[in-house]
Amino acid sequence: MSLPKDFLWGGAIAANQAEGAYQEGGKGRALVDILPAGKERWEALYNPKKALETKYDYYPSHRAINFYHTYKEDIKLFAEMGFKVFRTSISWPRIFPNGDELEPNQEGLKFYDDLFSECHKYGMEPLVTINHFDTPLYLVEKYGGWRNRKLIEYYERYAKVVFERYKDKVRYWLTFNEINMLLHIPFFGGGLIIDDDENADQIKFQAAHHQLVASSLATKAAREINGSNFKIGCMLAAGEIYPYSCHPHDLLKSVKENQKQYFFIDVQSRGAYPSYTKRMFRELGVNLQMEADDERLLKEYTVDFISFSYYSSRLTSADPAINAGNKSGNAFGSLRNPYLEVSEWGWQIDPIGLRVTMNNLYDRYQKPLFIVENGLGAVDKLENETVEDDYRIDYMREHLKQMMEAVDDGVDLLGYTSWGCIDLVSAGSGEMKKRYGFIYVDLDNEGNGTGKRYKKKSFDWYKKVIETNGEEL
Ligand code: BG6
């Protein structure tokens, strides 16, 4: 079993979790810039009203790991590991500080020009997410985020600008990070603030529709600007949802939940609202408002490849009493699977689930897949200028083995970028202490530390993996 010679090995980060410099270079504020860290973060994600009033002013997202200023030395380290691809995102408010301007911020554009050139210096292909949880705050405050159809126009303008500007430097694009996050943490995914007396499903699916149309319009613009030289991908927070037992009710429940998860990709990849949405919307009381051209756009401009993050499988039961308890620790809510171990943050660890997920995604869409996030968030201890992170190596080794099994099963896979290849701020906790990297960054939750970079044990391990194209794990 071997991977294709041109397999894209690499790592991934996101602007808002790495760059810092949150008010430099003409950047406006993103919705994530007003969120607190630690315990309060979780509350704020689900009750963003308070965050909007308070506008928390916390270290992590504001200074992050200072990648805005250190990208040259960081990319050099990625190159040392042999990265063929580097996934990052463009910060929307660096390009359009408020989001609804007519002209982009030149300083912001220049930053990414330099960053992408730096990647090419080492033969590294940038893989760029257009929107990764950082919708401009102004669009949230003035327009209500993605519930407002106006955002389609602003996103389209932004996408056109970056396509034109970077057409010679970027080939792979993702329109929205984890587009299905909108259903789970609507503020993160769509800048949504939903009142108690509103039908939350109506607001969420309407916002989802706007993002889906925006994604198609971006794909249309990409084709017009650079034809098939651009490869446009969607991005799903994936993880097969298993039935709690072999009771048919549980199986049916898992089928329904998986459909809800795949809903976004069904539209982005197949080009139409799937048959099951009719009933799903009816039962949820959702009545989508569409414009005349929407269905045609969705149909004509589908994605070239399917990218996804994979951290864990999930588990569901048809019995509300069982479903009510025993939740695992991440945004998607899952029952605890007794066959799986969990990370320090309660995320279940299921390498075989990756193979299952890949098989299902490929069967469903028959388009190339790209794993753009996977990894273990853990507390690392810096000792003698390194971290002995065997636990991370074990986690990745098992996942990569299953990834290769899936390729052997026949799945067409373009590449693999591990999440947080350099330590960065956690999206869910807003802290530094949940680390994913091969490179340790000497900063703590309060921003104390030198910011210096240290290679962890996994650095050399991953280098070898890339060098041998996965033969030596
Ligand atoms: C994904 C996001 O949900 O998971 C990343 O795309 C995020 O932004 C990653 O960092 C890991 O989550 P966390 O909460 O551990 O940072």
SSE diagram, text form:
Layout lengths: L7 E5 L2 H4 L20 H8 L1 H7 L4 H5 L3 H15 L3 E5 L2 H4 L10 H16 L3 E5 L7 H7 L6 H16 L6 E3 L6 H4 L1 H5 L9 H27 L4 E8 L2 E3 L4 H23 L5 H9 L9 H7 L4 E6 L3 E3 L3 H5 L16 E2 L5 E2 L1 H15 L3 E5 L16 H20 L3 E7 L19 E3 L11 E3 L1 H11 L6
Parallel strand pairs: 1-2, 1-12, 2-3, 3-4, 4-5, 5-7, 6-8, 7-11, 11-12
Antiparallel strand pairs: 9-10, 13-14
Helix pairs in contact: 2-3, 5-7, 9-12, 12-15, 17-18
Bound molecules: 6-O-phosphono-beta-D-glucopyranose (BG6).
6-O-phosphono-beta-D-glucopyranose binds next to loops.
Describe the structure.
It is a single chain. The protein has 473 residues and is α/β, with parallel strands linked by helices. Helix content is 44%, strand content 13%. It is built from 19 helices and 14 strands. The chain has helices at 15-18, 39-46, 48-54, 59-63, 67-81, 92-95, 106-121, 137-143, 150-165, 181-184, 186-190, 200-226, 248-270, 276-284, 294-300, 320-324, 351-365, 390-409, 457-467; strands at residues 8-12, 85-89, 125-129, 172-174, 231-238, 241-243, 305-310, 314-316, 341-342, 348-349, 369-373, 413-419, 439-441, 453-455. The strands form 4 sheets. Strands 1-2-3-4-5-7-11-12 form an 8-stranded parallel beta barrel, surrounded by 4 helices. A two-stranded parallel ribbon has the order 6-8. Helix 18 links the parallel strand 11 and strand 12 (413-419). Helix 17 (351-365) packs parallel to helix 18 (390-409). The longest helix is centred in the middle third of the chain and has 27 residues, at 200-226. The model has no long low-confidence stretch (mean pLDDT 96).
